[in-house]
Amino acid sequence: MIPSTRVGVTVRKAVCVTVAAGLALGACAGRDPQPVATVQPQDEFSDCTMIRAEIQANNQKAKDLADEQGLKVAQNVGAGVVGLVIWPVWFGMDFKGAAGKEVAALQARQEFLTQLATERCRPGYRPVQPPYPYAPPPPPQQPYVAPQVAPTKP
Question: Measuring CA to CA, which residue among 53, 34, 65, 60 is closest to residue 113?
């Protein structure tokens, strides 16, 4: 039989190990960056209206990312200060900088779109037409069924 004081210590150790594991996994706080590609496949066929619409959408996304980046900085500062007293809070800090990397990629995309817009929004520009899609495949044919031959008697 285990003494009651020994059981309490074992449970406490198990709780501490579980909390430590949770905090260690919490070190992965923050999301992974998902930067936008500077040149995209549809750019070849985009006209002036499409380019301007994307530029406006990217401006809104840049504002949202700037807000997110500011909030992450405030969160990290708060976690750093609280971490001086309660050190496990440091595991909740975001070191990935996803918003900053996405903003940089978005700025590169915006510069590319601006160059594309000056070329394609001038009077008289005619965009390249996208290639025609392939013709649909023919419908499947009925499987060949061999005619039945009556067996011959020897």
Answer: 53
The pTM (predicted TM-score) of the whole model is 0.58
Question: What pLDDT digit, counting tens, does each position of 69-104 carry?
Answer: 887 777 778 877 877 778 777 777 777 888 889 999
Chain-centroid distance, C-alpha 7: 47
Which residues fall within 8 angstroms of residue 105, CB to CB, at 6 or more apart? 35, 36, 37, 38
Domain boundaries, the chain: 34-120
Please name the residues in contact with 145: beta carbons below 8 A apart, sequence gap of 6 or more.
Answer: none
Cα 12 to Cα 15: distance, rounded to the nearest angstrom: 5
- Give the Cα separation of 130 and 69 in Å (integer): 38
DSSP 38: S
